[in-house]
Specification:
Helix content is 44%, strand content 18%. A hairpin with a 2-residue loop joins strand 12 and strand 13. The protein is α/β, with parallel strands linked by helices and 381 residues long. Helix 3 packs across helix 4, helix 3 runs parallel beside helix 5 and helix 13 packs across helix 14. The strands form 5 sheets. The protein has a 5-stranded mixed beta sheet with strand order 1-3-2-10-11, sandwiched between helices. The chain has a 4-stranded parallel beta sheet with strand order 6-5-7-8, sandwiched between helices. A 4-stranded antiparallel beta sheet has the order 12-13-14-15, with helices on one face. It has 3 domains: 141 residues, Rossmann fold (3-Layer(aba) Sandwich), CATH 3.40.50.10090; 101 residues, Rossmann fold; 102 residues, Winged helix-like DNA-binding domain superfamily/Winged helix DNA-binding domain (Arc Repressor Mutant, subunit A, Orthogonal Bundle), CATH 1.10.10.10.
Length: 381
């Protein structure tokens, strides 16, 4: 469902899709606080750890044959592993084993989870980068060593392969698994909104979520339309480079924050989306055309979808007359009746609150009342 935030902010007038299954409420709240409308459609669900037979099998295998090194990659995954082992009656045995091995933590959050469990990590990179972890392992030599890697539902490109090429035996510890959502309805609504350009951006916080969305679009026979929307009109924002891999493999350009966190991801959207809005000087006003609303000077004016379609068609040739027939084609599902243009235009003018922004040119069509001297005025500011 859509959640609207009325307070004016950098994302006011924009609609953002959230595909996250985990921490979705936190991401949605951050977006809404900055004014965005949020369409939440979890593209995945996480299998509860205690129910995951693969994790149980991997844990028993490690207890039967101890590893030399354990690489912990996520805080939630490491905590969940310990909690699941407790539920199986194996918690103390697992902790005792982890005390006797070389334990590497990918970053500060993972380090915190390790210490909360009463353990101490051998080493942790300052960069939170798996590449740095890999470099350290290879520099120290891995031939003949048994290395357990806590997998976290996302691909680790080249990591496991590089260790195996170095002569290591690598054991994956699948601390949680991604599954398709039980209710596919929200995902389908997000896909429809993306293809119809009802969204301004879609956010991804995991590679499996991106892959799942693409897979569902393919099942519905709408993958080409989705790719077209994401390549040209809908901003694709990923929390980091690993998350972006399935999208980039399909030729979709993505934006990513410098720090792979939700806060920086939202700040990136606060910069990117307003910079993509069309701003025009019209009839003495500064008009900024956003996703589902228009900023007229400092006032945010929500506009119905049909009105936004007309306004975008007019803004492609600001100041020029656009024929009713061309505007009719811009209206979604309007048929052949030009009366639909007049109705949508009347509602658009009402929504804008400044009817003189759009001029009627008798027997020809409509035009935006572009200020002829505006370029020179703005150049002098």
């Amino acid at each position: 469902m859509y959640h609207e935030q009325q307070q004016h902010g950098p994302l006011s007038g924009f609609t953002v899709g959230v595909t996250a299954a985990r921490r979705a409420d936190e991401l949605g709240a951050l977006l809404q606080r900055r004014g965005a409308a949020v369409l939440h459609a979890p593209a995945l669900r996480i299998v509860p750890l205690a129910d995951d037979s693969e994790l149980l099998a991997a844990t028993k295998g490690l207890l039967a044959q101890a590893p030399d090194i354990v690489v912990a990659t996520t805080a939630i995954g490491f905590r969940g592993w310990i909690e699941a082992a407790d539920g199986w009656g194996l918690g103390e045995e697992l902790l005792n084993q982890l005390r006797s091995v070389e334990l590497l933590a990918r970053g500060p959050k993972v380090k915190g989870s390790i210490r909360a469990a009463g353990l101490t990590e051998e080493w942790s990179p300052s960069s939170e980068s798996m590449a740095e972890v890999l470099d350290r392992l290879l520099d120290h030599g891995v031939e003949g060593r048994r290395i357990a890697v806590q997998l976290h539902g996302e691909p680790l490109p080249g990591f496991v392969e590089a260790l195996r090429e170095g002569g290591a035996e690598v054991v994956g510890v699948p601390v949680y698994r991604w599954m398709p959502p039980e209710d596919i309805g929200p995902v389908d609504r997000l896909l429809d909104a993306t293809v119809s350009r009802g969204l301004d951006a879609v956010t991804f916080t995991s590679a499996p979520a991106a892959a799942s969305l693409l897979s569902r679009a393919e099942e519905r026979g709408m993958l080409p339309e989705l790719l077209d929307a994401l390549r040209h009109d809908v901003l694709t924002a990923c929390v980091g480079p690993v998350t972006a891999l399935p999208l980039q493999a399909r030729g979709i350009d993505t934006v990513q924050p410098d720090r792979f966190r939700l806060g920086p991801l939202v700040q990136l959207l606060c910069t990117e989306l307003p910079s993509r809005a069309r701003t025009l000087p019209i009839a003495g006003h500064r008009v900024e055309i956003r996703g589902h609303a228009v900023m007229v000077d400092d006032a945010l004016r929500p506009v119905p979808p049909a009105g936004m379609s007309l306004l975008r068609a007019l803004s492609k040739r600001p100041g020029w007359v656009v024929a009713r027939s061309d505007l009719l084609r811009a209206l979604p599902g309007s048929g052949r009746d030009e009366h639909a243009v007049e109705t949508a235009m009347a509602r658009l003018r009402t929504a804008l609150g400044t009817p003189k922004l759009i001029q009627t040119v008798v027997k020809r069509g409509y035009r935006l009342a572009l200020d002829p001297a505006a370029d020179a005025k703005y150049a002098d500011m």
